[in-house]
Amino acid sequence: MLRFAAMRGLKKRDKVRTKLERPVGILHVRRSEAVDRVTRYWPSPDLEQLVEHYWVVRWDLTEPRIAETVPIASVHMVLEAGQSRIYGVMRERFSRVLTGRGRVLGTRFRPGAFRSLVNSPISSFTDRRLPLTDVFGPRAAMLGERALRHPDDRDAIAVVERFLLSCHPSVDGDMILAGRVAARIANHRSVTRVAQLANDFGISQRGLQRLFKEYVGVSPKWVIQRYRLLDAADRVATGHIFDWADLALQLGYADQAHFIREFKKLVGRPPAEYAGSLAAPRGQRVRRRGANPTSG
Asked: Are 68 and 286 in contact (CB under 8 A)?
């Protein structure tokens, strides 16, 4: 078992760099458009095995706006004035009404890595939003306030990193394996079956199920389906016209109808309708009816 250790030398804020890769899972934005209001940062080297990245959302609006995202297989710690929480893996899309002015600082943990901070399976957090004190105890009560009082993102992140290191997280072999399997799913569109993963990593399908329940929070099949649907939404956002039956087969679905049902369930519209909605002005693409003001 490997313990995390704080690095000496540079100040914490100086080791945090901006992450320039385009975010995934943000709905209602064409591929040709910039993703506004969101800035992401790499973690410092001493936490890179635990944290995928930090994200900051700022808004200053004269009219309410709905922001929607599709979550992936990661736990998040979300700091916001008055409502800082741990979000387990959420299986439905986030829909958040943004009003006035605000700022949120999020920590996206690598798949499997949050298990190093808690004493229970990550499946126990799935689809749950918990106050920080329910997870980390009283010492986390003012973490959001301590971080967000710093207007500079890097200074705020330094507060978060000091807190995470004070939790004494540790890496074990199963955590690393869970992360490697999840990364294979995310980075290889050809992965459409759990049996492929079991064969590639030399582990039984049942063993893979147990590993994901303990460390990731959802089944490997769910993770495969989520990333393939994200692939589909991303392709639709390019503005190209697709043969939906062919796309369904490419993503591992048995037929077009199954693919369209799953896409609509996650995104809120069938793929053709979603593609058409992206032609509208940016502020008019999201239906207001049924929006839930949940954090994301």
From this structure: yes
Q: For residues 42 and 116, state if they share a domain.
A: yes
- Write down which residue in 126, 146, 170 finishes a domain: 170
Q: Which residues of 103-112 are buried (b: 16+ CB within 10 A; e: fewer)?
A: bbbbbbbbbb
Domain count, the chain: 2
Contact call for residues 11 and 159 (beta carbons, < 8 A): no
**DSSP 3-state assignment of 2?**
strand
Looking at the DSSP assignment, which residues form a beta bridge with residue 56? 39, 105
Task: Say how far apart CA 256 and CA 156 lie, in whole Å.
Answer: 46
Name the percent of the chain in helix, strand, coil, to the closest 5: 40, 15, 40
Using only the alpha carbons of the chain, give its radius of gyration. Answer: 19
Per-residue pLDDT of the chain (296 residues; tens, 9 = 90+): 555 554 444 455 556 788 877 777 788 777 666 566 789 999 999 999 999 999 999 999 888 888 888 899 999 999 998 889 999 999 998 888 888 999 999 999 999 999 999 999 999 999 999 999 999 999 999 999 999 999 999 999 999 999 999 999 988 999 999 999 999 999 998 899 999 999 999 999 999 999 999 999 999 999 999 999 998 888 888 877 678 888 888 888 888 999 999 999 999 889 888 888 887 766 665 654 333 333 33
Asked which of 137, 152, 170 is the last residue of a domain, the reply is 170
Task: Please give the structure tokens belonging to residue 196.
Answer: 């492929």
